[in-house]
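ok trying this again, last paste got cut off
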Amino acid sequence: MATQALFGQLLIGLINGAFYAMLSLGLSVIFGLLNIINFAHGAQYMMGAFVAYFLLSLTGLGYWWSLLLAPIVVGLFGIALERTMLKRLYHLDHLYGLLLTFGLALIIQGVFRNEFGSSGLPYAIPAQLTGGYNLGFMFLPAYRAWVVVFSLGVCLATWWVIERTKLGSYLRAATENPTLVRAFGINVPRMITLTYGFGVGLAGLAGVLAAPIYQVNPLMGADLIIVVFAVVVIGGMGSIMGSIVTGFALGVVEGFTKVFYPEASNTVIFVIMALVLLVRPTGLFGRAS
C-alpha cells in the first residue's frame, strides 16, 4: 500500500474528526448543561455555512469575517428558539426536546432546500490558505491543515472555559442546583439561554469551516448529525473532553477503515458505539447519574 495514500486517508480522517469533535462538543455543552437533546444541531451547522455564503455574496464580506459573524448570527437564532420554544420543555422528559428539535431541523432544511435546491453552492477557499506543503511523503493542503488546527484550538478553549474557570463553575452549578445559584444573585435563565446560544454558535462555526471543503448544501448536516450523535454517545453524554477525544479518534478510525476495509467505513462508528454501550453504557468518558 502506498504511503502517500495512507497518510492521505489519515488527513481526511483528521478533517472529518475535526467536524465530529466541534459538533459533538456543541451537543455535549447543550445536553450537559441544559439537558436538551438538540437534534437541530445539523441544521444549525448548515445555517453557519449559508450565513458565510450570504455574507460573501450579498455584502462582500469574506471568510475571515464569516468566522466571526456567522457563529454570532446562528447563536442569536438559537437564543430565539430557546426563549420561544425550548424553555417550555425543561421540566418535561428529554424525548419532548428531541422531538421538537427534530421537527425544527426538518423545517429549516426544507426551507433552505426549497429555496436553493440540493446540488450545493460553491464557496472559495480564502486566498491566504490556498496551496499547500510538500512533506515528501504526502502533499498537505494548507486549508485542511488550518481546519484541523483551528478546530482543535476551539475545542480545547471551550473545555478550559467550562472546566477550569469561574464562569464554567457557575454554569455547572446552575444545572445541578439552580435555586442555590440564584441565591448568589446569578441570573440562571439568562445563563441557560447564553449557553444554548454558545452551543449552537459552535455548530455555525463548524459550518463556516466546512463550506470551502464540502460546498454549501441544505442537506450537509442531515447525515452528519447521526454520526455526531454516535460520537457523543461513545464519548459520554455531556462529557466535554469525551466529545473532543472521541471525535478526532473516530475520524481517524473511519479514515483508516476506508483504506483497509472500505466496505465497513460507513458503519464502523456505529459498530464501535454498540460495543462501547455493551461494555460501558455511560460512554468512555461519561459518569453514571
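PB: full thing came through this time. The mean pLDDT is 89.
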